[in-house]
Amino acid sequence: MIELTIAAAVFLVVVGTIFIAVGGNNNYRALHNTSVILQADLRYAQRRAIMEGQRVGIVFEPARNRYQIISLNPLNIIRTVYFRNGVQLVSINYPNNRVMYLPRGTAIPGSILLRNGQYWQRITTTLGGGQARLHPIVTEEPIWN
Question: How far from 111 is each of 6, 10, 25, 27, 127, CA to CA, in Å?
Fold first, then answer.
């Protein structure tokens, strides 16, 4: 009887782990994946600005729920990215809804707020290095600092 109980417990742990890995929370996962992609695009724009020696930025369009990576001199759209899987661009705390990296890789600090269902994700850039930082995903709207 003890062996059967142990075998049943092991089976339940394995089934529970598979259920969490496969099922999970799709809103949380979609928001996290979108945030990681946006963070990578911010870093890409920063590196490109440094390598090309010109301003490169990301222009956010909340009405279209997308952003575009652009370079200046001449104006060139590098890539357009739409937020998908229920992720919404809630607000952008940057002048003219754009993060602009200078040739040194610096940018004006600001924040981007994304939402998917009950989950909220805030992404900020720092003043000194212009680096993008993901804040923890929360279940209530974060307050701007």
Answer: 50, 45, 25, 21, 12
